[in-house]
Structures are given as structure tokens and as C-alpha cells.
Amino acid sequence: MKCRVCRGPAIIDIRRHNANFCTEHFLRLCRDQVAKAIKEHSMLAEGERVLVAVSGGKDSLALWDLLLELGYQADGLYLGLGIGEYSDESGDYARAFAESRGATLLEIDLREDYGYDIPTGARAARRAPCSACGLSKRHLFDEAALDGGYDAVATGHNLDDEAAVLFGNVLHWHTEYLARQLPVLDARPGFPRKIKPLVRLGEREMAAYCLVRGIPYQVEECPMAAGNRHIAYKEALNEIESRSPGAKHDFYHGFLSRASETFRQGIDEEQGALGTCGRCGSPTPAELCAFCRLVEQAGGSQPVELSARRRATGSSDPAPAGGS
């Protein structure tokens, strides 16, 4: 197996490109694909500061590394979710990466700072764990970016993640979500710009990137994600991709170029209906935003043991949680 560029020994084959790459040219491919996504979708301008949502997993750490390699002013933010040993280890990986690169890592701990963790909050608020987690992340990443004067929040959603989300939204015709499924969501009052620079790279490439770059990461998947439909959508697309390499790329990027404009009017309609949260000042259609309601319902609740929570959901096996 030879590298398409230099004909030297290849370390990885990427079937959708119908090509193999050596270490040097694989790393160059990753940098070039991120740079292309940033330029094509006007994600960042020279001199802008970006806050990377860091989970300790391969995608977010690879993204942070790539942005630093490309010369961007990129700091990380790690959110301690309180999901037992999984969160403890994830935080260790995030801190180790920051120390190895001399990079700035901000940290927020849900239990210490807001009186709840994800297992407890999900039960107290009668939300699915992934719902409580996603809500907490969105609010706190947005707030930290605005308070810190960052120009954008970057998340590690890769091509596999975005194709799976798109698949689910199309299956159920969630038009309000299709309207917002873009690589960039522009800043607006109360919200920072949100960007997804990994949309041209897949999960397998991100794992390989971390391996080649010597970046240790959290390999275990979130133990609270069992039953998440996103997992099934990924599996279905993986089967299609194995028979038709490039299908995920064509599906997602074809949607962006040919169909996404049809749904975008919904974004403006949604924005026009937002008021201000009476507690934290965030944009919301209600008196209190969803995050403040979650804190109100879950704050100070007795911590739930993770093993007990998993028995309550009828699951004993961890399952993938999607992009990090």
C-alpha cells in the first residue's frame, strides 16, 4: 500500500478519496481539509479567538490540535459532567493535552458550580441524559464564549456525526433542525458564532490523527448514551458507506449545497420570537431559559449513582454518544 502523493509506505486508506496516505501526507490532508472547511464556510478570520468545546475524546482534542497547528488562537473549555469515572478520565485527557501544548484550558464543574451532575439532573428534571447533557453544554459553552470575548465556539462534530444527525432529521422531517444544520451558525444577540471545522473529516480519520500525533484520548463511550437513536443512524450509514464509499460525504455536503437553503427561513422566524431569561439574561422564548429551569429542578438534588442510573434505563452496556 503506497501513498498517493509520494509513493512511500502508506499508513491509512481513505476509500471515499480512493487513496492511501503516508504519515506526512495524511497529517497534511487533515490540516488541508480543516483549512478548506474554515475558508469555504467563512468560519474564522485572521486574528479571531476561538473557544474549543473539549470533551477529552478524539474529535475535540484532534480539532484543538489542528486549530493550533493552523495558527489560530484556540483555547479549550472542559465541562465536568459528573458521569462517574468516565468524566474523571475525560478531564484528565483534556488537561494532559493542554499541558503538552502549553494551551489554555478553562474548566466548569456542573456539581460544584451549579449543584447537579448529568445523572442527577436527568432524573430530577425527567429528561433523557443526552438531553440534559446537550442543554447544559450549549448554554455553558455559549456563556463562556461571550463572557470571555471569544469570536466563535468550535465543536468536534465530524462528517460521520453530521451525516447521522441529518439522516435522522430527514427521516422524521424535523424541519426546524434542518434549518439549523449548518457548519456555521452566525453570532446573534446572546449567542456566539458556532463552527464545526471537522465536517470534511470522518471518525476514523480523527482516531488515526490522534494515534499519529501521539494524543491520548478517552476511548470509552459515554455510559449514559445507551438507546440514543443517533447510534442507530450511524450504524445504518456505516453500512451504506461500506458498499458505496463517499456516500456520507455526498449526502451531507449535497444537502448543504442543494437543499439547506430551503429550510433556512425557519431560523429567522425562530429568532424573532426570543425574549430574555429573567435569571441569567440568555435569549429564551419563556420567562426562564431551559438551562435555568434545569438548575432549578436539579440543583442540590441527592447525587445519583451511575450504576443505579444505568439499571433504571434498562441498559448495562455503554454505547457511543456521537461526536465529542
Structure, described:
The chain is an alpha/beta fold. The protein has a single domain (12-312), classed as 3-Layer(aba) Sandwich (Rossmann fold). It is 50% helix and 11% strand. It has helices spanning 23-40, 58-69, 84-101, 110-114, 118-124, 129-147, 159-171, 175-178, 203-213, 229-243, 247-258, 260-263, 265-271, 290-298, 306-312, and strands at 12-14, 19-21, 49-54, 73-80, 105-109, 152-154, 184-185, 193-195, 275-276, 283-284. The protein has a six-stranded mixed beta sheet, with helices on both faces. Helix 7 (159-171) packs across helix 10 (229-243) and helix 7 crosses helix 11. The longest helix is centred in the middle third of the chain and has 19 residues, at 129-147. It starts with 11 loop residues before the first strand and ends in a 12-residue tail after the last helix.
State the main characteristics.
15 helices, alpha/beta, 324 residues, Rossmann fold, six-stranded mixed β-sheet
Short recap of the structure:
By secondary structure, this protein is an alpha/beta fold.
Topology:
Elements: E1 12-14, E2 19-21, H1 23-40, E3 49-54, H2 58-69, E4 73-80, H3 84-101, E5 105-109, H4 110-114, H5 118-124, H6 129-147, E6 152-154, H7 159-171, H8 175-178, E7 184-185, E8 193-195, H9 203-213, H10 229-243, H11 247-258, H12 260-263, H13 265-271, E9 275-276, E10 283-284, H14 290-298, H15 306-312
Parallel strand pairs: 3-4, 3-6, 4-5, 6-8
Antiparallel strand pairs: 1-2, 7-8, 9-10
What level of helicity do the residues show? 40-55%
| CATH H-level superfamily title | HUPs
Number of helices: 15
N- to C-terminal separation? Answer: 31 Å
Main β-sheet description? 6 strands, mixed
Widest sheet: strand order? 5-4-3-6-8-7
Radius of gyration: 20 Å
Strand/helix succession: EEHEHEHEHHHEHHEEHHHHHEEHH
CATH topology: Rossmann fold
Which structural class do the helices and strands define?
alpha/beta
Shape: globular
Tally of individual domains: 1
**CATH-level-2 architecture:** 3-Layer(aba) Sandwich
Which whole number gives the mean pLDDT? 90
